Every structure is written in C-alpha cells, then in structure tokens.
Amino acid sequence: MNMLRLVAVLLVVAGVLALVYGGFSYTREDTAVKVGPLELKVEQKETVNVPVWAGVGAIAAGVLLLAFGGRGR
Q1: Burial degree of 11 (CB within 10 A; 0-12, 13-18, 19+)
Q2: Residue 30: beta bridge partners?
Q3: What HEC string does the chain produce?
Q4: How far apart are CA 26 and CA 37, in angstroms?
Q5: In the 3-class helix/strand/coil scheme, how is 40-57 assigned residue by residue?
Q6: Per-residue pLDDT tens for 29-49?
Q7: What does the pLDDT read at residue 73?
Q8: % of the chain beyond a pLDDT of 70
Q9: Gap between the Cα atoms of 4 and 17, Å rounded
C-alpha cells in the first residue's frame, strides 16, 4: 500500500469516527496555586466537538483520493 492510499484510508476512518462519536474529551491538569513548596493542581475536562461537515468532508476527500489519486501517473 503506497502512502497516498494510506492517507486516504486514514481520512475515511477519521471521518467515520467523527460522525459516530461527534467529538472527543481529554483531561488537562493546571496548577491553580503555588505557595512555596506547596502546589494546588486542578484537573479540567475539556471537550472538543467535531462538526458534521468535517466528518463528511474527510470521508469525501478519502474516497476521492482512493478513486482518483493514482491516475496522474
């Protein structure tokens, strides 16, 4: 499998995951207060929403690369 096909398949998979899950969450740790050797750390849960158009666009780009990517040679 050449690099172009690998990128195309990854785009399709990422697009499908974006449509199925709609986004992802991660936990970020921040230092709220630091007084001498003592630190107070706070964990914040961040959510990133992936728009539907981005998922559909990634699938379309992957399919187009699979269909027409190798025809220029």
Answers
A1: buried
A2: 42
A3: CCHHHHHHHHHHHHHHHHHHHCEEEEEEEEEEEEECCEEEEEEEEEEEECCHHHHHHHHHHHHHHHHHCCCCC
A4: 28
A5: EEEEEEEEEECCHHHHHH
A6: 998 888 888 889 999 999 999
A7: 53
A8: 95
A9: 20
